[in-house]
Amino acid sequence: MTERVAPSLDDPVMTALSEGIGGPVGRHARPARWWTPVRVVLALTALAFALGMLQKQPCWSEDWADGHDRYVKMCYSDVPYLYTGRGFAELLWPYDDDTEVRAKYEVMEYPVGIAYAAWAAAHVSHWLVGSGSVEARADVGTGALLQQPGVLEEQRGFIVATTMGLALATLAAGWALARVHRRRPYDAALFAASPVLVVNALVNWDLLAVALVAGALLAWARQRPVLTGVLIGLGVATKLYPLFLLGGIAVICLRTRAWRTFATVVLAAALAWLVADLPAMLTGWDEWMHFWSFNNERGPDLGSLWLVLSQAGVPVSTDLVNRVSLLGLAAWCLVVLAVGLRAPRTPRLAQLGFLIVAGFLVLNKVYSPQYALWLLPLAVMARPRWRDQLVWQAGELLYFASVWWYLDGQLDSGGGTQPVFYWLAIIVRVACELWLVGVVVRDIRHPAYDVVGSADDGAVEGRRLEAHA
Fold it and tell me: Membrane-crossing residues (predicted)?
């Protein structure tokens, strides 16, 4: 059996921290029989998620009704507002095309995976709370729904059901990441104990896609292209960004001439995405299309460099942002392609996926705080070093605090016109992300710096593909 890498011997930060509890593990240390690395990672993941729940407690105790506290106490979540705002209080199918339903409720602005999860959570809540028939709510306006008998209790049940689903997804992600690199299971501890995970876990449903991405990384490491494609396809049906993993796989397969592998992954991804989206397409085509039109028509939004330019007085129309963002992403992907093809050895999927997703987020016209979760599994697998992760996440935490203060109006300048500190938080966040991008690019160009590739040769999927090409 291959010897596992001990974090206290491998990572300088962990080595320094271990001095407070007796120093790094010794050569004659005997591993615990029950506390396997995977179980340790799962325990850390559960603890981090529990801290994330505790962080939302101030809003929970007020039923998310206090618009001021949800920002200053940084406990905002999208979850409770959609119960009454998207028809779930009436147990309506998210893609119902009935004209009266659509006149009353906005269409879900998320891909189908999230819509299905919210619809299922609403049914679970209704089953648990048992408020009876919802037919009488059809004539009640959305603003008055919370005052109807049982709705507030159902909303709380909806939050609980959603939270439990996200908890299972987070544990699944931790489990998968701990198994990606056979010699380095503790790399997943950087995911499990991440500050980004704690503060962003319950802002939205993003962890569903994170779990699918983590599963795809594991499936790819185990040379299972069909399962890799299926998980990517389901991920795209939940959040668009898992699509960019196909770019990383394309680079690896191009280097290794593994054309059949690439075709298998793409076909499996396309079929899985179609199967997941088909119920929505068939029951409400216009409602299904809303996600795409909504994202195409929105202007510069929270967290983006485009918002900084717009608020600073630079004329940036929605069409201009769409065109420049698309062209910029295409150019970024070409650079990643060049870096991947010119690398001394085949980069890992996590490295390439991280670079592409990071470029998308930097150039995108909206960069919500919870989008940091998109990068998290890719980042910790691409560069499993605590120092580098903490530098990146420091920028994320600064932005996490700043965005809520900004939304509460706390960051206006003395004249009350320009939120300069919020702009600075956006720029610092992007700078920290680009710093990590630079570190990953260095690892690819100079493999001696890549702690995974140099110490865990058997887990480097690119070289295994080369061996079978």
Answer: 158-178, 190-220, 226-254, 261-282, 326-343, 349-368, 419-441
